[in-house]
Amino acid sequence: MYELTVKTHFAAAHSIQGYDGPCASLHGHTWLVEVVVIGLQLDRMGMLIDFKEIKAHLNSVIEELDHRTLNDLEPFQQGGEESPTAENLARYIFRRLKQQVEVSGRGVKIDLVRVWESPDASAAYREVD
Question: Residues 79-105: pLDDT tens digits?
Fold first, then answer.
């Protein structure tokens, strides 16, 4: 099994509705996002998938989130992904990337998305078969 990891970051604000503490107020983070992809087969050039391709898919998702108030975005409004916590943000990014990457039919899968809201606090999402 081969594993590749790419990282990027973006700035966005959020508030955690119903939270008993300062995170209930609007505040911002420079979010760091790590994406891990896995697969069994390398292509004829010896690559699982080009880093450039994964970064392009990730950047298309991040562009929707960057310099925004996450609570205002449809996925994080009532009936969507729920509150824009790090956990829900990781799940949202995972699912968006899965739609883009896994349809290629090359056997590459999104394994994990980890979202860091600070240098010492992160949440990750992966699907269990």
Answer: 666 899 999 999 999 999 998 887 666
**According to the model, what pLDDT value does residue 19 have?**
87
Which residues participate in catalysis according to the annotation? Answer: 23, 67, 117
Give the predicted TM-score (pTM) of the model.
Answer: 0.93
Distance CA 115, CA 93 (A): 9
Go through the domains of the chain in sequence order and give each one's CATH number: 2-125 (3.30.479.10)
Residue 73: Cβ within 10 Å count: 17
| Residues paired with 32 in a beta bridge | 9, 116
Distance of CA 115 to the CA centre of its chain: 6
Average pLDDT, the chain: 92
Asked if 114 and 122 count as a contact pair (C-beta separation under 8 A), the reply is: yes
Q: Cα(125)–Cα(90) distance, rounded to whole angstroms?
A: 6
